[in-house]
Amino acid sequence: MNTDPKLDEHQKQGVTGGTWIALILGALILVMLLIFMLQNNVPADFAYLGWTFQLPLGVAILFAAIAGVLVMALFGSVRLFKLGHRVRRLEKEREAIKRTIN
User: Fold this and answer.
1) Cβ(64)–Cβ(36) below 8 Å
2) Distance between the two ends of the chain, CA-based, in angstroms?
3) Is there a contact between 57 and 40 (Cβ–Cβ < 8 Å)?
4) Is the pLDDT at 1 greater than 60, yes or no?
């Protein structure tokens, strides 16, 4: 029983088309958010954990967007860590199988 030699080759980690699309969409959303901030610069009252303060509405939306990005990055990082751990474990198992076969 032979293993596929392509599995032993180094895998390239290049920037794919999907990454470029995500970057372009992110830039468009950023431009739209900046336009929103410029058009909504009226002060708004906010209360958070007993604190009360005033911020321009556009700045508050920017902070909310940043918080959303950080939460998504946290969940994405956890998922990538788990997948990387699983890949390393499967690679070790594959090497053990190859040693057993040979």
Assistant:
1) no
2) 9
3) yes
4) no
